[in-house]
Amino acid sequence: MVTSNGRGGITTALIYTRISTDEQRDGVSLDTQLRECRRYVAGQGWIIGHEYQDVLSGTRDDRPDYVALLDEARRLRADDRDRLAVVVMRLDRFGRRVLERVRCREELKALGVPTHSVREGGEVSDLVANILASVAEEEIRVLGERVSAARRHVAALGWFPVGMAAWGYRWRDSTAEERASGSPKRVLEVDLATASFVREAFERVAAGESMRSVARWVRDLPSSARGGKTMHQNAVIRALRSPVYVARQRRTDDSNPLTEPAGRWPKLVSEVIWAEVQRRTNGHRKMPRQASGRYLLTGLTRCPACGQRMQVGIMAQRLPRYRCSDVRGRCKTMVVMAPVDAYVLNQVGQALRSLASVDREFRASLHQAWELLRRPPGEDTTARRTALEQAFERARQRIVRGTEMLLDGDLDRPSYDAICARARADIEASEAELARLPSEQPAVGLPDLQVVLREMHHWAAVLAESDVPRQREVLFHLIEQVVPHHGTVRGHYEVEIVWTTLGLALRSALGSIKEEAA
Q1: CATH homologous superfamily, domain 12-140
Q2: Cβ-based neighbour number of residue 411 at 10 Å
Q3: Which helix H or strand E contains 478, and what residues bound it?
Q4: Tell me, what's the pLDDT at 420?
Q5: Residue 221, CA atoms < 13 Å, CB-side half-sphere
Q6: Which residues are 324's β-sheet partners?
Q7: Measured CA distances, 104 to 84, 134, 156 (Å)
Q8: How far apart are CA 55 and CA 18, in angstroms?
Q9: pLDDT given at position 7
């Protein structure tokens, strides 16, 4: 017998099976596919060749065994081997992207390798195969939209969407009260066996320990302390950047999670510690490590013309200058280092020396000004906002209970309407007052003044006497950016300093004291 590919002899079947997630690996899905494919091959009187298996989404075209199967088919055809066929349980196991399905099918057809689908009747025509591919792609699109919508809905209600629990947490079944308030079937709770290690990791980084050192410490913990997770360095960094530990969710990549309302699961670390860890983990973007240790403001200086970061000029040893780092080479802005460095050191040094004063009257005024910055008068609306949100939730629960009683026949319709009317009025009143409240201040507060003052003495001495690397460490805490604008006189600059939250608070406190003295 001569087949469509021009060869006689026995057919070798390459079997391909696939599931989408690792969680299904222990189930019967792969085994079921393999058994059905083998049974089909046996029924055709073919030889079972290599069996390929992927545990990846069908939307990915780089699945290792999928790629290996196509490579094997090409190799066997190039060697002019006997007849080949590819067998899958369903065509959607081969993939869920129409373009890739069509491309793959055309390539196999050109090689003379038919594709057989067990549950779809064997070899399928091009028309049917393309229709099935379109249906599979639409199914995965709709499923993705439904999952995304469900996760957004759960998050909007203040719950964390079900998925892999972060290190330090575990899942538990939600209570009836939680389900009534819109929770998913499982909610996060603190994992007592691992939570203390998570807190220690945050505290180590906040205290100044390097990320690499903390990652090594986490790696060397016993498996029970890591919750059985493999915590390599990147995993530790991702964990320390996750807002889940302050009961927040990140809405967008560039948003500040601390401006979002707190979720309905327990937080593991304080907002202050979490914010400090974010500042330190992102610090390399602001002030990258410097090999030479000779240049004060690299990383902090921004080009006054285009806003790009400035770096050390090529001829820095002869005439130290900062130059624009525009990679396209269109901006040639350069500034001389010495006057800019001197201005910044002078401005920061004056503030630190003033704050390090031992005058009791000055200290008392400073303390008062600092406390006003930590807790602005008239802006502490947290308690009232919480009370209104609780009143809103109680009114909504009255509607839920009333609806249940109506459905059970324990409440007539007029009574139900009266309950809903009162609850609706309470909800509208709560919403109206919430809208009138000032926006909540970020949850991160300034540190205690005594903590700051202990650092001031040390920082002032460092700026006055220490080497550049230690001076840069001080500036990292107080300055976000330095923008040197060319002055009217050659070699002179008008330097704009953008202060950090801490630096701005220190300057504001000093400004308040000077205004009172005047």
Answers
A1: Resolvase, N-terminal catalytic domain (3.40.50.1390)
A2: 17
A3: helix 468-478
A4: 75
A5: 26
A6: 310
A7: 15, 15, 42
A8: 6
A9: 46
pLDDT digit string (tens) for 255-277? Answer: 678 877 888 889 999 888 898 88
What residues are paired with 34 via a beta bridge?
A: none
Task: Categorize the per-residue pLDDT at 357 as very low, low, confident or very high, splitting at 50, 70 and 90.
Answer: low
The DSSP 8-state label assigned to residue 164 in this structure reads S
Does 204 score more than 80 pLDDT? yes
CATH of the domain spanning 169-281, picked from 3.30.450.20, 3.30.2130.10, 3.90.1750.20, 3.20.20.10: 3.90.1750.20
3-state secondary structure of 81: coil
Measured in whole angstroms, the distance separating CA 119 from the mean position of its chain's CA atoms is 41
What single string gives the DSSP state of each residue in 105-163? Answer: HHHHHHTT--EEETTTTEE--HHHHHHHHHHHHHHHHHHHHHHHHHHHHHHHTT-PPSS
What distance in Å separates the CA atoms of residue 206 and residue 273, rounded to the nearest whole number? 6
Instruction: Please enumerate in sequence order all residues whose Cβ is within 8 A of that of 412, keeping only pairs 6 or more positions apart, or say none.
Output: 406
Determine the pLDDT at residue 198: 93
Domain locations in the chain?
12-140, 169-281, 285-372+447-517, 382-436
C-beta of residue 84 within 8 angstroms of C-beta of residue 11 = yes
Q: Say whether pTM exceeds 0.90.
A: no
Q: What is the pLDDT of residue 170?
A: 92
pLDDT surpassing 80 at residue 250? no
The rounded distance, in Å, linking the Cα atoms of 90 and 121 is 10
3-class SS of residue 184: coil
**Within 10 Å of residue 168's Cβ, how many Cβ atoms?**
26
**Helices assigned H by DSSP within 170-210:** 176-180, 195-206
Backbone phi and psi for residue 126, each to the nearest 5 degrees, phi listed first: -60, -40
Backbone angles phi, psi at 188, to 5 degrees: -80, 140
CA gap 208, 187 in Å, rounded: 33
